[in-house]
Amino acid sequence: MNYYLGVDVGTSSVKSLLMDSEGKTVGTSQIGYDIIKEKLQYAEQDMEKLWEATKETITDLVKRYPEESAKIHGIGYSGQMHGLVVLDGEDQVIRPAILWNDGRTAKQTDYLNQVIGKEKLSEYTANIAFAGFTAPKLLWMKEEEPENFSKIAKIMLPKDYIAYRLSGVHCTDYSDASGMLLLDVKNRKWSDEMIQICGIRKEMLPDLYESYEAVGAILPEVAEQLGFSGKVTIVAGAGDNAAAAVGTGTVGDGKCNISLGTSGTIFISSKKFGVDEHNGLHSFDHADGHYHLMGCMLSAASCNKWWMDEIIGTDQYQEGQKEIRELGENHVFFLPYLMGERSTHNNPDARGLFIGMSMDTTRADMTQAVLEGVAFAIRDSFEIAKSLGIRIERTKICGGGAKSPLWKKIIANVLGLKVDVIETEEGPSYGGAILAAVACGEYGSVEEAAEKLIKVVDTIEPDAGLVRKYDERYEKFVKIYPAVRELYQELK
Packing angle between helix 464-477 and helix 405-415, nearest 10 degrees? Predict the structure, then answer.
């Protein structure tokens, strides 16, 4: 039996997972770390702390499972996307990493979208600029930290820095690179136009790999530190959403996964490249060697957490949902834009909104509206995918919000899809381990691995009558945001 490590370099913690060649999770280890917020909109991290946390989780697993760890063949990664890690000529980190949820680049984002132009950006990269993407961060550094900018020798993403410390190789994968706004997604190469726009040199960018490709072997001195005795292959890995898709079996053509985490995503895999004309969805390379479309809403399960924790004042989420009786009949609507919104509106100034209350509105109605509002916002992305001719009949679901039977039922009926629940809940780290197994020849392809390892344990079927009711409710929901959009700027 061979074993593989999946390392998820997340925003608030690193999680390492040990998996055997049959897909069984042997054990996990997780360590948290802080986000540095020197100013309100800033979000940065000390990469040395991420490296130390990664080492600690791996050595913890090695100590707990010594026999299995002696047979580890490969390490694959999942990582928070869009961040900016910059190294100097001595491979030293120049400044703390600027993270995906950092909001300082409004000026640079507007420049890219308005001056360079969305059409040009879409032509160069298949995407438009978002404040969290890497390219606006580079422009910010160029304008605000010219001395640091002049020192840049290598540009990396957070997980890739960890891969570098393990292997000594400056690398990234196509899925994670897709979220930098520096990659020609369609042709799987760095965009010469974006390199010029950002004022960098091509040699500053890491070598590109498929997510399931080996980038090298673990450095001998690092292997000794971690307790490895044999050769361990270091694998490129994937951005967190692509890795989670692998971990849920969302690979190949026309597969779908919904993640109900703090943020929410709808992830649609495709063997064909596609871009919607309004760039409402991200068009990225996938970890299986093909492509995917992704809608990302900034507040998903966090909406319910906010509502229950801060407004209702309870941590008994399921109890609050027991009061909900009748689906498809609620007259209260909720816009789930508590942190602004990415897909499909791309409006950092958008905010949450309840509308439709009357004297007979109950707490249960408003709780229901929160759950339905998130589901409707997911459908916004789903409708764009349908407009591109993508046919989807069912979806998998994962994340903390997926623990709610009621929420899964609402989503199944709002989307009119069968919703599959899978056996493992590990997602990104599990996907990283699968990618490592493919790289080491355990499986012939990512699709083959997913087919053999991912098991569906439950399916929620939509009800035709309820689907019709939610279709009617959704038609009203989509009219609310355009009606209040101009107000958000005034309410800042």
Answer: 80
In DSSP terms, which residues pair with 234 in a beta bridge? 75, 216
Residues 260 and 235 in one domain: no
pLDDT at 432: 97
Average of per-residue pLDDT across 328-335: 96
The token pair at 25 is 């999770």
Main-chain phi, psi angles of 419, to 5 degrees: -115, 115
Residue 469 forms part of a structural domain? yes
- H-helix or E-strand spanning residue 437: helix 428-439
Length of the chain: 492
Task: Name the DSSP letter for residue 100.
Answer: T
CA distance 185 to 109: 19
- What's the rounded Cα separation, in Å, for the pair 213 and 171? 11
Cα-flanking dihedrals φ and ψ of residue 184, to 5°? -75, 95
Instruction: Judge whether 243 and 82 are in contact, CB under 8 Å.
Output: no
Distance separating alpha carbons of residues 478 and 335, to the nearest angstrom: 10
pLDDT digits (tens, 9 = 90+) for 53-107: 999 999 999 999 999 999 999 999 999 999 999 999 999 999 999 998 888 999 9
Q: 């996907």: which residue's tokens?
A: 431
The 8-class DSSP code of residue 219 comes to -
Catalytic residues: 240
Sign of the CA dihedral running 128, 96, 340, 417: positive
Q: Are residues 194 and 318 in the same domain?
A: no
Buried b (16+ CB within 10 A) or exposed e, 392-418: bebbbbbbbbbebeebbbbbbbbbbbb
Long-range contacts of 402-409 (CB under 8 A, 24+ apart): 402/258, 402/260, 404/317, 404/318, 404/321, 404/371, 406/321, 406/324, 406/371, 407/260, 407/304, 407/321, 407/371, 407/374, 407/375, 408/460, 409/327, 409/460
Residue 85 falls within a domain, yes or no?
A: yes
How many Å apart are CA 333 and CA 376, to the nearest integer? 10
Q: What is the per-residue burial (b if ≥16 Cβ within 10 Å, else e) of 431-465? A: bbbbbbbbbbebbeebbebbeebbeeeeebebbee
d(Cα 370, Cα 364) in Å, to the nearest integer? 10
Same-domain pairing of 156 and 70: yes
What is the Cβ-side half-sphere exposure of residue 364, based on CA atoms within 13 angstroms? Answer: 13
CATH number at residue 178: 3.30.420.40
Q: Which residues contact 250 (CB under 8 A, 6 or more apart)?
A: 256, 257, 267, 269, 396, 450
Whether 314 and 413 share a structural domain: yes
Q: What is the pLDDT of residues 179-200, one digit of tens each?
A: 999 999 999 999 999 999 999 9
Per the rule left: phi > 0, alpha: psi between -120 and 50, beta: everything else, 420 is beta
Q: Quick one: 303 and 203 in the same domain?
A: no
Q: What is the mean pLDDT of the chain?
A: 94
